[in-house]
Amino acid sequence: MRELKRKRKLSALSAGSAATFILCYLLLLAVIFVTIVCNSPDGWLQFINENLSGIISLIVCTFLLCSIVYYYYWFEDREFILHAKNVFLVFFILIVEVAICYVMGRFVSIYARPFALIAIMCLFLFNRRQAILLNFVFALMMFVIDTYTNYVVDGVATNAMYYSLMLAFVCGTLSVFVAGGIKTRVGLIGAGFIVSIPTAAIILLLELPDLTAIGTASFFISMAYGVAGCMSSAVLALAILPLLEWMFNRLTVFRLRELTRTDVPILMRLKKEAPGTFNHSLIVAQLSETCALALGENAELARACAYYHDVGKLKQPECFTENQKDYNIHDELTPELSADIIRSHARDGYDLLIASRMPQIFADVALEHHGTLPIKYFYAKAMKLSGGDVNRKDYSYLGPTPHTKIAAIVMVADSAEAAVRSLKERTPENVEKVVRSIIEERLDLDQFVDCDITMRELTTIKETLVAALSGVHHHRVEYPAMRLHRGGETHEE
User: Fold this and answer.
1) 331-374 pLDDT, tens per residue?
2) Count of domains observed in the chain
């Protein structure tokens, strides 16, 4: 029954994804049609009739290029492309880039086109490999559109379309590698300037053979347009990325940094209403970031997920030890009710983050960071009261278990921080023993079966946490018991 439901869901998602792909392709054709009309407002119908075979070639070529993109995702990241909104996002970026480049090339200059825009946006919204692919497809698509619509004079294509193809390939590819390490929005402007230098060199090489014909002034104007095109790519990316982040709830390095500021409303609530949980989350975030770096994972994403992993405790903050002072509400409750309250914070966190339009991975980590582990304290208490007649599932978290390495890192870091904090002797040996025990227990209870984490990576996490926790929870030298006063007086305390 479960398998049948899964297949039906998969079929529904596939149908929705394919339908969205067709819709996006038709939208692209509509944009191309608008460019033909703009090229010849009074004679566009005649142009289509006279170039019907070329228009058909254009339709077929753009469909093939769009299909390449769709099938790339189908085989490389099917989970992503099965969601209709992701299909729309990918092709929306392509369509926007085509429209902007047409406008700039038609009304300003071919060199003023923001060729690097699509590569930059895809780099931050997806990853480097997808950015290179989509830039490659865009370059060919723009070349096809130029060939059959924009730069055909008496049936003969001008050099501009070939220059456009070259610049789209080079500028886009260069921007992927130049902007790959950018962590701030301001730094993106600098990346645009860096890319403009080789772009100017390419324009120099392209225009130099015709220098006598075009004139020195036009030559330098073309180079200036090339620099402006690269800079405008960065500026437009800065303007468009926040909109796409909000519309499609996508994570970029810029948004991650914004979401880990302590003035975010949820974190401000956590700091005010559950200060113990807030401080615990800060330490877990530091530990998770260090572990992610050691594994080569996205360290900033790990840190952000850890910031929000316990926000479900906001529903009943006084029920959790780190927020209690002298009164423990669980002393008055049955173990079963206490366990139900404790384990509900995972689901409550998920619901709160989804309702707040936080990234899906934040909500997933909040739901998965305890997996299906038993709540030991109340399980042991129930065992004692009932004489051992207890179902462990009634005192366990509801899961699911971690599905990503980030969730697995947060799971281990969360438990390790709490366990080490309770140690009386926090020597490296004791810390290592505790962390090793935590990882081994989760292995025994099959908490990592749904994520692709390896034993080597778990060993790396253990070693990283031991080193970090030995530093976080270190012992200090005992201060002398004396109090100093003005005038040089000293009193023993």
Assistant:
1) 889 999 999 999 999 999 999 999 999 999 999 999 999 999 99
2) 2
Q: And the tokens for 98?
A: 């085509």
Same-domain pairing of 222 and 352: no
* Segments forming the whole domain that contains residue 69: 2-250
Stated pTM of the model: 0.84
15-46, pLDDT tens digit by residue? 999 999 999 999 999 999 998 888 888 888 88
| Start-to-end Cα distance in the chain | 72
Q: Which ranges constitute the DSSP H helices of 149-215?
A: 159-178, 185-207, 211-214
Using the predicted structure, report yes or no on whether residue 416 has a pLDDT greater than 90: yes
187 within domain boundaries: yes
Question: Does 246 share its domain with 338?
Answer: no
- Residues ≥6 apart with Cβ < 8 Å to 393: none
Which residues touch 191 (CB under 8 Å, ≥6 apart)? 120, 175, 178, 179, 182, 234
Domain membership of residue 482 (yes or no) is no
| Helical segments of 325-404, H only | 335-355, 360-368, 376-386
479: in domain: no
What's the CATH code of the domain at 245? Answer: 1.10.1760.20
* Structural contact between residues 132 and 180, judged by C-beta atoms closer than 8 angstroms: no
User: Please, how many CA atoms are within 13 Å of residue 127, restricted to the half-sphere of its CB?
Assistant: 6
126 and 206 part of one domain: yes
The larger pLDDT score, comparing residue 486 to residue 470, is at: 470
Asked whether 363 and 409 are in contact (CB, 8 A), the reply is no
- Contact yes or no for 163/204 (Cβ under 8 A): no
